[in-house]
């Protein structure tokens, strides 16, 4: 009974903040985009720290991080197209990055 009481207490205490973090005019910053960006920055910074400890140039890690983020966009699109059978029939939807069918991490389908 006590466990059920605490579960109900926490269920009402922790609520979703919503999908949008903030609005800057026509630009909307969403939580998942913010969290992905923070994870990439944290990963690159941690990798640079570990590279310095292992006598590797940290600038190489930073440069690699930039190229990996650039490569992740078309690779995420390719992954989505390969594993979503509905999209394969429409070539214009495959090539559309910001249309109705967008990148998988953009929250649209």
SSE run: HEEHHHH
Beta-strand residue fraction:
5-15%
- Assign a percent range to the helix content: 55-70%
Query: Ends: how far apart?
Result: 42 Å
- Report the total helices: 5
**DSSP summary, beta strand count:** 2
Mean pLDDT: 78
- Show unreliable segments: none
The major β-sheet equals: 2 strands, antiparallel
Radius of gyration: 20 Å
Please state the overall shape, judged from the principal axes of the Cα atoms.
extended
What is the number of independent domains?
1
The assigned structural class equals mainly alpha
> If strands are numbered along the chain, what order do they take across the biggest sheet?
1-2
What can you see in these coordinates?
The chain is mainly α and 109 residues long. It has one domain. The chain has 5 helices and 2 strands. Strands 1-2 form a two-stranded antiparallel ribbon. A hairpin with a 2-residue loop joins strand 1 and strand 2. Helix 2 (31-53) crosses helix 3. The longest helix is centred in the middle third of the chain and has 26 residues, at 58-83.
Please summarize what this structure is.
The protein is mostly helical and 109 residues long.
Which descriptors would you attach to this protein?
109 residues, mainly alpha, two-stranded antiparallel sheet, 5 helices, 8% strand, extended
What's the helix and strand layout?
Blueprint: H1 2-13, E1 20-24, E2 27-30, H2 31-53, H3 58-83, H4 85-88, H5 91-95
Antiparallel strand pairs: 1-2
């Amino acid at each position: 009974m006590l466990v059920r009481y605490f579960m109900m207490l926490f269920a009402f205490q922790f609520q979703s903040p919503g999908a949008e973090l903030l609005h800057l005019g026509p630009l909307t910053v969403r939580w998942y985009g913010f969290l992905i960006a923070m994870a990439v920055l944290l990963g690159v910074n941690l990798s640079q720290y570990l590279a310095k400890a292992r006598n590797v140039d940290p600038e190489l890690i930073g440069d690699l991080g930039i190229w990996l983020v650039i490569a992740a966009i078309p690779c995420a699109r390719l992954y989505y197209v390969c594993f979503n059978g509905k999209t394969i029939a429409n070539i214009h939807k495959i090539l559309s990055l910001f249309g109705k069918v967008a990148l998988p991490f953009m929250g649209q389908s």
